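Below is how a single chain appears once it has passed through the pipeline. First comes the sequence as given, then the structure the pipeline wrote out for it. We keep one example in the README because the format questions we get most often are answered faster by looking than by reading.
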Amino acid sequence: PPVIGEKSNFKVYWIMENSLHELRDVKAELYLPDYVMWADNSNVSAGNIYYDLVDHKVVWNLDRLPTSINNVDVSFDISIIPTDFEYNKILILSTGSSFEARDLETGAIINKKTGIKTSKLEDDPIANLSSDGRIR
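Resulting structure:
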């Protein structure tokens, strides 16, 4: 679990799957809470990823995703250094990522949003065995 005054790193994974129509102008964004830092360690299978310092968000852009490619993925690190004020709290690491793309066949704009992610790491069964996500 995260510890007061110590840096904790978390890896974020985005996977976009596509099998119906070609997608264009694919964009994913993640606004970071003020206490969450971009750790500048990313891996991208297609497109480009950057950190927007002004808006405090991570942005992934991909010009096109044809149906011949089943999925593309991105991973990057974020980190926190909890303070005394956060002791015994579960922190929000992400308010949710938003994804947008244009379906080339229909012209429709596709929008998706993920849910909130916390220091409890709800999606990680291994982390759930060893921690309740509270700051120590």
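The first strand starts at residue 8 and ends at 17.

See the next section for the split statistics.
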